User: Which sequence fits this backbone?
């Protein structure tokens, strides 16, 4: 358990009580958790902080789940979104945002399943990110910048990719 | 002798007239016979007392009785509610005629026939009532279509309401689920609880989780029922699908020697349809079979799954030697929420879902059953 990765999770749902318990359970497992009670709030938080996985409720007042996860991916392209729905229309939802969401799940979700899927999403995120990061780093080295320039460019990259 | 001549010519005139009346009468009778024989409507005549004196050919079609069987009996006895029919007769007697829709008659085979009935007074030359004529249009089929439409409409409405409720319930259910999960975590970490109390609490949180799961099954099944998912057809092997479904259900059979045998056609059985939806059908039908054999044999039941391919369709038979389905229940089993199982075991959603899916892929489900012997459900899917 101890060498499990710490995953930065963003929870987005207008059901505050649900987020309260869900975040307690995920925190207890050692993950970093932030809760947002609307799509707007989530976007605001994502502008400030990096996350690995977002869990987004489909049906929310204001910006709905599909829209929210699209916006989140614009801000943080490597972020993986798991979309929850209390609705039977998973398939329709899937169609409208297939290319963006990591997975759609029906509420109430089985907690163990959810944790497994979060881990899978995290893995995908790290892999795609790593590949891209390596490409970028290589590009910087090839670009012929001086040592100082390279250091600066990489610091810039680290910020974009949320890597410390 | 002189005086006889006018009499003779008068007689001749009368004779001629009589002959022409005879012809007219003959024609009228032929005309009437033609109507009584060929009209689609059931036409009858009674004398004043209501006793049948004429019954048209089509009456046989509408009510199943021949002319000989009913002549001499009371017309009201053909009706489902003789007293109401008598009253209807009386109204027509007073008013000269009357019309009524949807009058129920008793068919010889026990079914109900519905007619649109017009009654007209039959009078003699003096205008005295000598009986009643009835013209009855068979509207049984029309009525059935109407009833079906109402039923389908109600079913769809019920489905919509149920789905709405299920959807609303999923959110609080999700909270209960997370809260109980959290409680379980807290309990397992808590110090200062006696081991007995800890056990009690662990048991209680487990129970909450289990029951939430049960609710979840129901809401998801319901939502699955009304979900208008589009067909996604692909090529797949029916045998592989069945084998996977059976192994998926194996946990259900753990510790119970219920036998599931397969008797498939040789080789793979490829077809182009929606495997996800068909899997749902198989799961439901096998689950029902398991319940049926378990109820009869305890755990020593047998289920056999067979496949068959004809020119136009693939058939999957699910045969069990369970309790069977009594005749009187057979027309209900495909109804939404119809179940004979105790609460917690049955939702009454399985078969309606199966039927919905079968229709969606252009097929159907048929059922044969003998009480105490077993049941076979057959899924027919066009290829
Ligand atoms: N294989 C079977 N043998 C006997 N009865 C059956 C079988 N399958 C279905 N039934 C009857 O049909 C009813 C409706 O089935 P279903 O729609 O699947 O709902 P449920 O299984 O939840 O009761 C059952 O309650 C049972 O009475
Ligand atoms: Mg069932």
Assistant:
């Amino acid at each position: 358990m101890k060498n499990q990765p710490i995953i930065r999770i963003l929870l987005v749902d207008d059901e505050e009580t649900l987020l309260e318990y869900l975040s307690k359970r995920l925190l207890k497992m050692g993950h970093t958790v932030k809760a947002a009670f609307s799509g707007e709030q989530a976007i605001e938080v994502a502008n400030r902080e990096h996350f690995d996985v977002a869990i987004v409720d489909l049906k929310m007042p204001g910006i709905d789940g599909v829209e929210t996860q699209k916006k989140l991916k614009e801000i943080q392209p490597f972020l993986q979104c798991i979309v929850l729905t209390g609705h039977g229309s998973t398939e329709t939802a899937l169609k409208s945002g297939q290319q963006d969401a990591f997975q759609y799940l029906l509420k109430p979700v089985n907690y163990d399943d959810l944790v497994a899927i979060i881990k899978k999403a995290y893995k995908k995120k790290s892999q795609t990110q790593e590949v891209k990061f390596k490409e970028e780093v290589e590009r910087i080295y090839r670009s012929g910048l001086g040592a100082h320039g390279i250091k600066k460019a990489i610091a810039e990259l680290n910020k974009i990719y949320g890597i410390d | 002798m002189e005086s006889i001549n006018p009499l003779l010519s008068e007689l001749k005139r009368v004779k001629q007239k009589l002959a022409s009346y005879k012809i007219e009468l003959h024609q009228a009778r032929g005309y009437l016979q033609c109507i009584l024989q060929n009209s689609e409507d059931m036409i009858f005549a009674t004398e004043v007392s209501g006793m049948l004196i004429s019954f048209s050919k089509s009456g046989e079609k509408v009510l199943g009785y021949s002319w000989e069987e009913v002549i001499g009996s009371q017309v009201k006895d053909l009706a489902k509610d003789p007293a109401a029919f008598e009253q209807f007769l009386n109204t027509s007697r007073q008013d000269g005629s009357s019309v009524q829709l949807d009058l129920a008659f008793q068919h010889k085979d026990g079914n109900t026939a519905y007619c649109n009935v017009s009654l007209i007074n039959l009078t003699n030359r003096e205008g005295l009532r000598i009986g009643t004529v009835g013209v009855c249009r068979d509207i049984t089929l029309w009525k059935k279509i109407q009833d079906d439409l109402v039923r389908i409409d109600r079913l769809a409405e019920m489905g919509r309401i149920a789905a709405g409720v299920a959807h609303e319930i999923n959110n609080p259910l999700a909270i209960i689920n997370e809260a109980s999960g959290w409680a379980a975590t807290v309990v397992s970490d808590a110090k200062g609880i006696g081991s007995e109390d800890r056990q009690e609490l662990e048991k209680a949180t487990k129970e909450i989780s289990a029951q939430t799961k049960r609710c979840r099954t129901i809401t998801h099944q319901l939502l699955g029922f009304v979900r208008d998912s589009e067909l996604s057809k692909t090529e797949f092997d029916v045998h592989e699908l069945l084998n996977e479904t059976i192994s998926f259900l194996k946990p259900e059979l753990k510790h119970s020697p219920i036998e599931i045998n397969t008797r498939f056609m040789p080789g793979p059985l490829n077809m182009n349809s929606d495997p996800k939806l068909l899997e749902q059908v198989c799961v439901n039908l096998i689950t029902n079979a398991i319940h049926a054999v378990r109820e009869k044999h305890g755990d020593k039941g047998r289920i056999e799954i067979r496949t068959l391919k004809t020119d136009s369709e693939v058939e999957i038979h699910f045969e069990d030697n369970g309790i069977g389905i009594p005749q009187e229940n057979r027309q209900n089993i495909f109804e939404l929420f119809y179940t004979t199982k105790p609460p917690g075991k049955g939702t009454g959603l399985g078969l309606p879902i199966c039927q919905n899916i079968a229709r969606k892929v252009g097929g159907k489900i048929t059922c044969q059953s003998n009480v105490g012997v077993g049941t076979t459900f057959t899924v027919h899917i066009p290829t």
The pocket of magnesium ion (ligand 2) is lined by residues B 284, 287-288, 350 (CB under 6 Å).
